[in-house]
Structure formats: structure tokens, C-alpha cells
Amino acid sequence: DIKVHFPITTGVLFDRVIGHVKAVDGVDLTVPRGQTYGLVGESGCGKSTLGRAILQLTKPTSGEVRFDGVELTRLAPNKMRGMRRRMQMIFQDPMSSLDPRQNVESILTEGLAAHRIGAGRTERRQIINKTLDAVGLPHWALSRYPHEFSGGQRQRIGIARALVLGPELIVADEPVSALDVSIQAQVINLLDELQDELGLTYLVIAHDLAVVRHISDVVGVMYLGALVEEAPSDRLYREPLHPYTRALMSAVPVPDPEIEDRRERILLAGDLPSPANPPAGCRFHTRCPWAQPTRCADERPVLRDVGGTKVACHWAEQIASGALRAHEVKV
Ligand code: SF4
Ligand code: MG
């Protein structure tokens, strides 16, 4: 039941709290060990904040985070240090997350030194070289600086920086969205191989459903700070139940032109509402093509099991069976 609420303040001399941005507003999810959980949703839905809250890089307002049975939100700082090594993050834009004044060796040594891993320079070099091999970078990369590499290679440096500490969980926030499409598959495949070799657990955050499709075992869809649907990956892509998931999916082009012509296309009305002032009832009701008076505007749907998919929609069964038809979308 993780919540992350940021205060909105105003005032010249004294800060006055005038409201809260409910970036994450009560999310429950489990990332199974050795598997990949794909978390998707539009920018501003709270998925990055949730990722950071899981790693304790942002303090949750309330709720618990359990890692390997240990509750992290109330852990003493010295105990948290030991846990931090086991959970690492990969960022979207390697150029802005890597210090341009540090060469690769210094970038990779920093974490080792902070966590006191490796006895001396020789041992650290061995760990670093093994890590470079694992991410497919040559050893001469060590003396070079981030700007000397291509985008794809820079993301490999970002991955190496996370891996060098020997983590168990990696939270990857939009790991390929800053990269050319041709490079994206290489990086996704690398993450996949590393998972097999090292038994890593991933939470992969992306705005693009296509990115997480092949790497994820489970996919969760977020809208305005809440999880609206969660299912095993193949099931979610075969039979999305939540209207929002269906809308996201209908925006992904299909390579086959015949299918592309006949498939469902759902246009969402209006913009994403502000997380400072989310709609009452179902948060999606202001944009949902299936919204029904007055229940959708009055009652917040809870995540419930519908044939193996968890979905937060009052009308999931009726929409899936076609008993409820989408009304015309006002744009
Ligand atoms: Fe749409 Fe209502 Fe379902 Fe929300 S509960 S997704 S508004 S049909
Ligand atoms: Mg984000």
C-alpha cells in the first residue's frame, strides 16, 4: 500500500502547504525473484516515483517495502547501506546520469569503494574487468570518458555501474527510451542475458508497452498513481481487460498492414488529469470510452481477480464479453 505524496507549497516568507501531488496513491505489487516485472503507463503516472520509493531513494509517505523479507522503510541507515548494494538502478539517460568528468574506471570504482568491495586496486580491477565483459564493453573503455561513447555503449556503462556491486534487484527506469530503435533491442537482449546468467530480478519501467513485452514475466499498468491492471505478460497482451490498457495497446502499431487496418483503435478524450486533483470514483472515468453513470464517477474500483488478471474496473467482465459497448469518444 505504497503512497508517495508530495506537498505543494506556496508563500513568500513561510511555506504554506496548499495541497498534495498524489504521485503514488496506494500501490501493491510483488516482483518475483529471478523474474521481470514490467511497469508501464504514461509519463506522470507515478511509475518512476514508485521505482524510486521501492529503492528508498524517495521516502514513501506511507506503506511498506519488503525486500527479501526485510521491511525497508523503517530500516536504520547503517542497515540500509548493506541492502542498497543488493538493489540498484539503471536510468533513462546515461548521458545525464554519468558524470562527464569521470572516466569509466572511476565511475565503476566509486560504488566498489563506497561499499568496501574488493581488497585493493588489483582485486577491484578484476571485478571491473569481469563486469565490462558481462556488458560487452572492451577493457580499454576504462580510461575513456562517457562522451567518447555512443548512446548504446553509454547505457552499457550505466548497466555496468549497477552490476559491479553484484545486486540482486535492478530497477531500470526507461532503460532504452533515449536510444535509437535499432539499439533498443540490443540493450533489452543484454538485460535478458544478464538476468539468465546472474539470476537477477528486474523491475523495468517504461511508457511503451512494446518495450517491456518480450522481457517481462508480469506486466502492471499504472494510471494516475494507481495500478489499474496486472497480469502475466502473454495474458495481458493477448487479452487486455482494463479500458486504459486497451487504449495504450491500441496506440502500438502492428507490423502486419491487414491487422493494422482492422484492429481496435481507442482514442482517449482529453488530457491526463492532474495528480494533485485526481477525479473521484474511477480515476479513468473522465477519459474512459466505457464509463457508466454514475458508478464510475462515484466509486473507486479496487484491483480484483478476473480469470487470472487483476483489474481495477467495475465493468471488466461486461466490456470483455462485449455486453457493454464503448460510447462515442468526445475529443
Ligand atoms: Fe471505465 Fe468505469 Fe471501468 Fe473506470 S470503472 S475503467 S470509468 S468502465
Ligand atoms: Mg518516468
Structure overview:
The protein is an alpha/beta fold. The protein has one domain (2-86, 167-321): 3-Layer(aba) Sandwich (Rossmann fold). Helix content is 34%, strand content 19%. The protein has 13 helices and twelve strands. The protein has helices spanning 47-54, 77-84, 94-97, 104-114, 121-135, 151-163, 181-198, 209-213, 233-238, 243-250, 257-262, 295-298, 316-321; strands spanning 2-10, 16-27, 36-40, 66-67, 70-71, 87-90, 169-173, 201-206, 218-223, 226-232, 304-306, 309-311. It has an eight-stranded mixed sheet, sandwiched between helices. A hairpin with a 5-residue loop joins strand 1 and strand 2 (16-27). Helix 5 packs across helix 6. The longest helix has 18 residues, at 181-198. The protein is globular. The two termini are 34 Å apart. The model has no long low-confidence stretch (mean pLDDT 91). Magnesium ion binds at residues 43, 47-48, 173-174.
Write the layout of secondary structure elements.
Layout: E1 2-10, E2 16-27, E3 36-40, H1 47-54, E4 66-67, E5 70-71, H2 77-84, E6 87-90, H3 94-97, H4 104-114, H5 121-135, H6 151-163, E7 169-173, H7 181-198, E8 201-206, H8 209-213, E9 218-223, E10 226-232, H9 233-238, H10 243-250, H11 257-262, H12 295-298, E11 304-306, E12 309-311, H13 316-321
Parallel strand pairs: 3-8, 3-9, 6-7, 7-8
Antiparallel strand pairs: 1-2, 4-5, 9-10, 10-12, 11-12
Helix pairs in contact: 5-6, 6-7
The structure holds iron/sulfur cluster (SF4) and magnesium ion.
Protein name: Dipeptide/oligopeptide/nickel ABC transporter ATP-binding protein
Pfam families: ABC_tran, oligo_HPY
Family: Belongs to the ABC transporter superfamily.
